[in-house]
Design brief:
The structure holds two protein chains of two kinds.
Chain A lengths: L13 H16 L10 E6 L4 H13 L3 E5 L13 H8 L5 E6 L4 H8 L4 E6 L5 H15 L6 E5 L6 H10 L5 E5 L8 H9 L4 E4 L11 E4 L10 H7 L18 E3 L20 H20 L4
Parallel strand pairs in A: 1-2, 1-3, 3-4, 5-6, 5-8, 6-7, 8-9
Chain B lengths: L1 H8 L5 E8 L3 H7 L9 E9 L3 E9 L5 H4 L10 E6 L2 E7 L5 E3 L2 E2 L15 E6 L4 E4 L5 E3 L4 E2 L1
Antiparallel strand pairs in B: 1-3, 1-4, 2-3, 4-5, 6-8, 7-11, 8-9, 9-10
The chains are: A alpha/beta, B mainly beta.
């Protein structure tokens, strides 16, 4: 059995990522079955994240696996002051695999170093959330039939958006052209941009969303949060300029799809939901397939 | 000139001289090299005059030699340091320190939300830029610049 954790998307090579996406495609055709029949997965959510937890639990249960764990730290012995190390080592005695969400950055890396069973990081603070990245990649592949040579626009909060950072870095493996649309205050950090530069890929920065609509294969929308602005006046100025409505989608490429890591607030108007370009709910479903594929891959279960 | 240099280090019969330590960090260099518990004679100098540096520190450790990866641990805090190996009062080897690729258990991660500030675990950084020092934390993956280095 292979024992490999997934803490950061950079832990996996391009070949491994493509292998997991290929497995997800198989699972999508038949998402129910006994692949995880004798498997117990520890699902440890040290902070609540209902969306991610439900996706993992649905993924496990549809393949016949069993779940043990907790959905927030108040219902565990963390309350009594137990260290993360002891919690992981305890659960590892019962479970074949641990899925963990934790507010502290680097917690999943630490857990993967001490745990005798593989760890899947379901989010460690502002650091990594690699299964989100995998499901984004899968959705791009599914809608475009390729990951190569695409024009991808990232819109909204590119500075703090963790999902944006991971996906930008992952897409640098596929000769992407990047279109970065954000308020000046929320531009993509140079620590992420350096990955694009290293691969000498083209990237363009915009403040106007309208400009990228006709040229994009994928538009990846994100939420802009008021608390990210030092000056509330600035937020008021920009909050409605990064909002997608159905009337803006008149002149698009035929293959354009709109993605969003969700939850959305108002950055995609509900009138977009019924447009052929809207794809964010299918994206959610893909999250389940990708997590099913990932768990099988990590446990060395053959299909 | 030659004789003066000879005189400066000849106090050691055998051992290592760590010269050109920046002013004010001699104690930290001792700590990083684990010399606080060393039982061999150690001579410390601080506030010494230096043509190159104005003021400098110096450490002489009798009967101890350091492997490169051991001595390079001090390169972040004492990038100017010169390492001189002495045998039988003679300079056998003289070299500059160089910044290592990884730094383990010397620095504290300045990110207050990093796991290393919560659990008992050795800190671990990758040096991603050596000229204008930039490190990446192995755990929280934050990039740390020169101004934010905190020693344990």
């Amino acid at each position: 059995m292979r024992k490999k954790s997934l803490v950061s998307i950079n832990d996996f090579s391009k070949e491994e990522i493509l292998e997991i996406l290929a497995l997800a495609k198989k699972i999508e055709k038949n998402p129910n079955g006994p692949l995880l029949k004798d498997v117990v997965v520890g699902v440890l959510f040290f902070e609540p994240s209902t969306r991610t937890r439900l996706s993992f639990e649905a993924a496990i249960q549809r393949l016949g696996g069993k779940v043990i764990g907790f959905s927030d730290a108040s219902s565990s012995s963390i309350q009594k002051g137990e260290s993360l190390k002891d919690t992981i080592l305890t659960v590892a005695q019962y479970a074949d695999l641990i899925v963990m969400r934790h507010p502290i950055e680097g917690s999943a890396r630490f857990a993967s170093e001490i745990s005798p069973v593989p760890i899947i990081n379901a989010g460690d603070g502002a650091n990594q959330h690699p299964t989100q990245c995998l499901l984004d990649l899968y959705t791009i592949l599914q809608t475009q039939n390729t990951l190569d040579n695409l024009h991808i626009s990232f819109v909204g909060d590119l500075k703090y958006g963790r999902t944006v950072h991971s996906l930008v870095i992952a897409m640098t493996m596929f000769n992407t052209t990047f279109h970065l649309v954000s308020p000046v205050e929320l531009k993509l950090p140079s620590a992420v941009k350096i990955h694009i530069k290293e691969k000498q890929l083209p990237y363009y920065q915009y403040t106007d969303l309208q400009e990228v609509i006709p040229i994009s294969d994928i538009i990846y929308m994100t939420r802009i949060q008021a608390e990210r602005f030092s000056d509330p006046m600035e937020y008021e100025k920009v909050k409605n300029s990064y909002r997608l409505t159905a009337s803006m989608l008149t002149n698009t490429k035929p293959n354009l799809k709109i993605l969003h890591p969700l939850p959305r607030v108002n950055e995609i108007d509900t009138d977009v939901d019924n447009m052929p370009q809207a794809y964010y709910f299918q994206q959610v479903k893909n999250g389940m397939y990708v997590r099913q594929a990932l768990m099988c891959y990590i446990l060395g279960i053959n299909m | 000139m030659e004789s003066k240099k000879h005189l400066q280090v000849s106090a050691l019969e055998n051992g290592t001289v760590i010269d050109h330590i920046p002013q004010g960090v001699v104690q930290k260099v001792l700590k990083i090299l684990g010399l606080e518990d060393c039982t061999e004679p150690i001579y410390l100098g601080a506030n010494l005059e230096s043509k190159k540096m104005g003021r400098k520190g110096i450490i002489k450790v009798a009967n101890r030699y350091f492997a490169n990866e051991e001595i390079n641990k001090i390169a972040l805090i004492a990038p100017t340091a010169t390492i001189i190996e002495i045998r039988n009062y003679e300079i056998i080897k003289k070299q500059k320190v160089s910044i290592p690729d990884e730094i383990v258990n010397i620095l504290k991660c300045p990110n207050p939300k990093c796991i290393t500030n919560y659990e008992k675990v050795a800190t671990h950084f990758y040096v991603i830029e050596k000229e204008d020092i930039k490190l990446r934390c192995h755990y929280c993956e934050k990039i740390i610049k020169k101004d934010n280095l905190i020693y344990l």
